[in-house]
Design a protein that fits this description.
elongated; 754 residues; 20 helices; Beta-Lactamase
């Protein structure tokens, strides 16, 4: 059987230090030993080199043997019961008697392997009652505090009393994972770290990820020698994930970092809030120090206490902020927006600033700025609004450091370091922006954050200077709290609805005025039409009368004069016909007259009687189908079919006698995609001169004539009049034709019920 160690010997450099595989070091700390057992057989597949020092068996003797064969069936039974009862990674420790020695063990599972870590039972175990007293006293302290900072101070004090470490810090992260010593309890002769800040590079991303998985991390002696882990060499690249391990060996970079701080031992407890790493309880000792598993769990309990209280304390603070903001929101929602000018009244309202504790606000609407408080100039507001509309795609945005996004605004960062922006329109720069001014602060760093990693002739190492380094932070406002952000969003949504209603109101007013103007214009046009159809007909009648008298009384006029008078008379007649048709067309509009069921057979028969002479003159043949009744206005329908029959006779082919065929579909037809519009179709077909299909739509335009006026008399109004009649009946008209063969006019009348 071939055996190998799994020690990770990868060299850390500038390109991989943030990806260092710290979860698979292949080694452990020496204050305990490790066994890796196969899931089903409980065969020892991994073990640490120091097993011989604790249980008298070398790693080479252990690997490949079953747990029961080495430690007995009773120990295996205890282990299986512990796993079956769900105690892995819980506060319940497994006490095993292995080879005449007592051990406290933790067990966890990873990729088909049970990882057992054992530490000798300490002779200095603190009485459980003492641990309980500390815990119960801490609970009393917790009820006596009001702020989160006071509570964290008591947590630091209580944890130090329980564990005996020289320094205990509650370490809080900001949004970028830079850390701050938020609370501290420290030995009197040591320099305090309270209020110091540490750059995010001190705890790289993969370390933060492990803090999320493994809530307790212990280093008993910084000067320890890592103990390698061995395994049976039966699989290529075989390894063991120690993310949840208590004994896991530490990154050389982190060990050097602690050396530079002169720390001898550490205990770290993760503080998880809303599934994110909120902070740490960091315990430092300036010499080697180990604490029993029981004391570690008691210390970890302090972490549970504080994380439960983070939510309560922050929720209480946020509730108070939310309550004040809600009062302001309710007051702002009482404003009515009945004109664009009212936006200035809204901007001037004191509660609009109290909504999110801003110092200024601006509303941009239709390229005009309405503002109040400490804001940029109008041109700068418009520039910002245009950029934000593009950057957010007309969405929302907030920041406490605008210059990180809009560097050209640095000149006004004293007024606009922080903003909350909400678009009020999807297609413009209409928006509302709240502002906060610059808050210049002094941040005390534990060493220069820009020198967190140093590369020198010795290679890569963490920073070795933790001397106080002060940074002046400018162009940054006080951070926006979540209740402030939420309330601003709620009001922006409310204002957007009001503005949409205002836009609709303005559009309605605009269309009302246009309607009034159109009504006035139509009235004027009707007057003009009256003049053109009545006053102008009188001189035309006189022209016709005089020209007719001259033509009948003057016998000795020259042929040229006779021809001119004849053409003048004919032109006057055509103009009079045109004026009459225009009068009919312009007066044909949606009427208030009641619709009634009209029998088309009777109606068309009446039309034929009125046109008897014209029909007889052309020897026109009529073919009539069994026509239905339609819902319509009788006199308009008479006009409709009179025009269509007259057109068919007028445009008859000189090569054959005219035939007009009027028929109907046997069943109503649905022509809309959703089958909601159903029509009764009537066809008026003839065998006249026809037309080319490309003109099927244009023939319904007013004054449109496809043939020379010398060949066919008419005004070009007839078919336009027909289309208007069909529109008045909520229907429509179409035409199809073939040049030299004839035309078909289709009339579509809506049917209420099939």
């Amino acid at each position: 059987m071939k055996i190998k160690d799994i020690v990770n010997r990868e060299i850390v450099n500038l390109t991989n230090c943030e990806q260092e595989p710290i979860h698979i070091p292949g080694s452990i700390q020496p204050h305990g030993f490790l066994l890796g057992l196969k899931e089903h057989s409980f065969t020892i597949d991994f073990c640490s080199e120091n097993c011989a020092a604790f249980i008298g068996h070398t790693h080479s003797k252990l690997l490949g043997n079953s747990f029961a064969a080495v430690f007995g069936d009773d120990a295996l039974r205890q282990l299986k019961e512990y796993i079956a009862n769900g105690h892995m990674l819980s506060s319940a420790l497994l006490r095993l008697h292995l080879n005449n020695n007592d051990f406290l063990c933790t067990v966890h599972y990873n990729k088909a392997v049970y990882i057992l870590e054992a530490e000798p039972v300490s002779s200095e175990i603190r009485e459980a009652s003492v641990v309980y007293d500390h815990t119960s006293q801490f609970l009393t302290y917790m009820h006596d505090t009001h702020t989160l900072k006071e509570l964290c101070g008591l947590v630091a004090k209580g944890t130090r009393e329980i564990t005996g470490y020289d320094r205990v810090m509650v370490y809080r992260f900001d949004k970028d994972y830079n850390g701050e010593v938020f609370a501290e309890s420290v030995r009197e002769d040591l320099e305090p770290f309270l209020g110091l800040h540490y750059p995010h590079t001190d705890i790289p991303p993969q370390a933060r990820e492990l803090y999320m998985q493994n809530l307790l991390r212990l280093i008993t002696d910084i000067n320890y020698t890592p103990v390698p882990i061995y395994t049976v060499d039966d699989v290529e690249n075989k390894n063991l994930d120690l993310s949840l391990s208590i004994l896991r060996s530490t990154s050389p970079m982190h060990v050097q970092y602690l050396h530079n701080m002169c720390v001898g031992a550490t205990l770290t407890i993760s503080l998880i809030y809303k599934k994110k790493l909120w902070g740490l309880i960091a315990c430092h000792h300036y010499s080697a120090k180990n604490i029993s598993p029981e004391i570690r769990l008691a210390a970890q309990l302090q972490g549970h206490f504080i994380t439960s209280q983070i939510d309560v304390r922050q929720a209480s603070e946020e509730y108070e902020e939310a309550r004040r903001a809600t009062i302001s929101l309710e007051k702002m929602n009482t404003f009515t927006l009945n004109s664009a000018a009212a936006l200035q009244e809204i901007a001037n309202a004191p509660d609009i600033l109290k909504l999110c504790n801003a110092t200024g606000v601006s509303i941009v609407f239709n390229d005009k700025v309405y503002k109040n408080g400490n804001t940029p100039e109008d041109d700068e507001v418009k520039q910002m609004a245009n950029w934000l509309a593009t950057y957010t795609e007309n969405g929302s945005f907030h920041t406490d450091k605008l210059v990180n996004y809009l560097s050209e605004m640095k000149s006004v960062c004293d007024k606009t370091s922080g903003i909350i922006y909400h678009s009020l329109d999807m297609d413009s720069n209409n928006c509302i922006i709240w502002y906060r001014p610059e808050t210049i602060t002094e941040v005390n760093w534990a060493g220069d954050p820009a020198k967190s990693i140093i590369k020198d002739k010795k290679g890569l190492s963490p920073r070795n200077s933790f001397s106080l380094w002060k940074e002046i932070v400018s162009c940054t406002s006080k951070p926006w709290l979540q209740p402030e952000i939420d309330t601003a969003a709620a009001y922006a949504f409310s204002l957007q609805r009001h503005i949409n209603l205002l836009i609709i109101s303005l559009e309605e007013e605009k269309y009302r005025r246009l309607s009034e103007l159109l009504k006035q214009t139509n009235s004027e046009l009707e007057n003009i039409n009256w003049i053109s159809t009545h006053d102008l007909q009188e001189p035309l009648r006189k022209i016709q009368l005089i020209s007719s008298r001259i033509l009948t009384k003057e016998e000795d006029m020259s042929p040229g004069v006779h021809d001119s008078l004849t053409r003048m008379n004919s032109s006057a007649q055509r103009m009079q016909t045109l004026l009459i048709d225009i009068l009919k067309y312009t007066r044909l509009k949606h009427t208030d007259e009641s619709f009634e069921m009209v029998d088309l057979d009777n109606l068309i028969e009446n039309v034929r009687e009125d046109m008897t002479e014209t029909i007889a003159e052309k020897s026109t043949e009529f073919i009539m189908g069994n026509l239905p009744s339609v819902n319509g206005i009788p006199f308009l329908l008479r006009q409709l079919f009179s025009n269509l029959i007259a057109n068919s006779i007028k445009y008859a082919s000189p090569e054959r006698l005219p035939v007009i065929k009027i028929t109907a579909e046997q069943q109503p037809i649905a022509y809309s995609p959703d089958d909601k519009e159903v029509y009764q179709v009537i066809y008026v077909a003839d065998n006249g001169i026809g037309f080319e299909q490309q003109y099927a739509e244009s023939i319904f335009n007013i004054f449109t004539k496809l043939h020379a006026s010398s060949d066919f008399k008419g005004s070009g109004v007839g078919l336009a009049l027909c289309r208007k009649i069909m529109q008045n009946h909520n229907g429509y008209i179409t035409a199809s034709g073939e040049l030299g063969k004839g035309a078909v006019i289709s009339l579509y009348f809506p049917v209420n019920e099939i």
